[in-house]
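ok here's MotA/TolQ/ExbB proton channel family protein:
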Amino acid sequence: MKFKSSDFIFQVFALLGSVILVHAIYVAIIRPNADALIEEQLAREAAGETYVQQRSIYIVMRDYEQEACFVLMLWAMAIMGLKAHKSIRERKLLNKALLNISEGTPILPEDTRDLSRPIQALPEEERSFLVPRALLTALQRFGSTKNVAAVSNSIKEVCETEGDRLDSELAMVRYITWAIPSIGFIGTVRGIGEALAQAHKAVEGDIAGVTVSLGVAFNSTFIALVISIVIMFFTHQLQLMQERLVLDTQSYCDNRLLRFLKIS
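and the structure:
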């Protein structure tokens, strides 16, 4: 419960930090530059000048839908960064000899209590990691059942449960990945609606407002889809990291413990 509450607090502050950072960049840099460019283009059109309109990243990013998409992107990156950091810390335990077992030394059921002590002496946070939990569960199961097959099943159950837990904790990231294109489509609907509301001006020859509104429609969708692609890439990389951790933990338990178990 302690770690779950700390994760929730981290997510709340990560969201607040993302909102503040992105909004500050928009207010200080993106919107002032975009407004200046739009005013320049409208002035040229009003003067009847012939020019090639350049696409500017400031104009593409200026609207509220794009800002919301960037906020969600940073929030998702922060959540995934925390989970990746935890996976890296857990993986480091795979390089440690948590069980002091010499090659060829058999482990009997009565030896499990002594072997459990070094693992139980780990710091509380490390003891909650997957590798120590799997080893402790296996040793306790072997001491109580004196059955190697039961130990193997207990390791598999712990790893499968951890895999399901890690997958369920990505639900928020998946929601964000779904929400970003949806926000982009909201911008599309808003832009097209504004363009239709100014259709009478376009009939009269003033297409400036319609052009700006259609820009809102297409730019919001463009930014949202690009951000969604980026987040999906990092999501799959995080899932791959977590799946490898679970599989390597099961292999670690098999090689460092299971093959030494003997029934007298």
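+1. The mean pLDDT is 86.
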